[in-house]
Amino acid sequence: MLGLKNSTAMGQFIERVVEHMGGFVPDGVPEDFAFINSHPYASYRNLETLLSAHPDWARWDLQAACVVDQSSLKSEVGNTIGYVCGLGHVDCSQVPIECKEKVWDTASWVFGTHFREIAYLKDGPLRPLEECNWHGVAKFERESSWAQRDLKTSCIVPLGAPDAQKVFVSPYGFNMVWLRQSKDEMSKFLKRAVEHMGGEPGAYIPSKFVQSQLSENASFRGLSQDLARHPTWAHWSSTAACVPNPEATAAVVGNTIGVVCSKGRHQYTLTRWGARSPMERRKARSEGHG
Q: What confidence score (pLDDT) does residue 276 get?
């Protein structure tokens, strides 16, 4: 479909993709957007990335969730549950009792929890068509769709709004928080950004500074430059240093040393690459350390 130079057909295709990403298009896809994606050099991966930014011509449901496709064979669903549990992003020993009665509810809880967890384990857009599919056993649906199914709502795990305490301190993480246009969420993100730059936030971050990071011209690059000037509302250590992440495994640290030596990577990359296992990250977040 991509690259066929047919904007009308492309618009219809994009509407279907939006639906599979938890949204819907009330008034049609803008002609210029459809035209750009009809270009011979357009790619599906690029389209998915553009849509992950949630353009305002579509409506996006924060209660969308990765749920089981009940048209699948129960044997396939059971096998997929085992596979997803084995990936390590969700502790399947914690499946709620009420979700164990039917395989459909078990699957929805496992799939939804897995998808929500990986949202904070990657520094980039989610790809529901790839990361919530498993050969058609699961699909990403809006609340208006999954609410009509014969599934227990307590076993549905919506993706929810981006959490400023969990997203990466990165351009993508900044953009996700910026899209919420919430002073409280941006304040949380800014406190983490200060810590990542060797500082310690004061009792509060000036409201004017927080608001400036929610403006149309705000960017992660601009934020980095602002914090590099060491604003007086934060405390800055003269002994801050670039060090390995103590929670990283020896193997990861060793591999990253090689990358740093060859490509000049700095602590920010080391911190991201020296990440804990998915289970360790989830435990740390629940204890307020992540």
A: 45
